[in-house]
Amino acid sequence: MKALVTMLVVCAVVAIAGCGAAGDSSGATTTESPALIGKPEVSVPERAPPEQLEIEDLQEGDGAPVERGDYVTLQYVGVDYETGKQFDSSWGGKPFSFTVGAGEVIPGWEKGIEGMRPGGRRELIVPPGLAYGRKGSPPAIGPNQTLVFVIDLFETSTPPPNSR
After folding, report:
1. What is the residue extent of each domain of the chain?
2. Any idea which fold 28-163 has?
3. pLDDT, tens digit, for every residue of 36-93?
4. How far, in whole angstroms, is CA 67 from its chain's centroid?
């Protein structure tokens, strides 16, 4: 009986390993890193908000860097630069996906995601001109707000899954 259980466990491990991205011909790249497991804490620098987009890799990922036209799947947390209060997060729900360069997200994300690699964690400090500008996005984001995002990139694919 012990030998049968051991054999079943080995078969299950082999079957699961065979389902990985290595044999996947879909063009998708997926990487999970231990540092990316769980919602990140976001801290706001104690200085005046920047006038330009600031990009900092908190952890480098692996695989091909994101390019315009790539479909990305990620998790994120967004906080107000002035107050440090969280206004949005995809953690606790399903990951967020979009096509880079298709105008589906704010310009700060379009520019800030390019070059990121799956398994990476990146911080973006986005000035109002690359976020929601003078109008804001009420009620969560007021006019002319600088925003801080920490983004964990899980997967990229080219072309987007729905175009295959």
Report:
1. 28-163
2. Chitinase A; domain 3 (3.10.50)
3. 568 888 989 899 999 999 999 999 999 899 999 999 999 999 999 999 999 999 998 8
4. 14
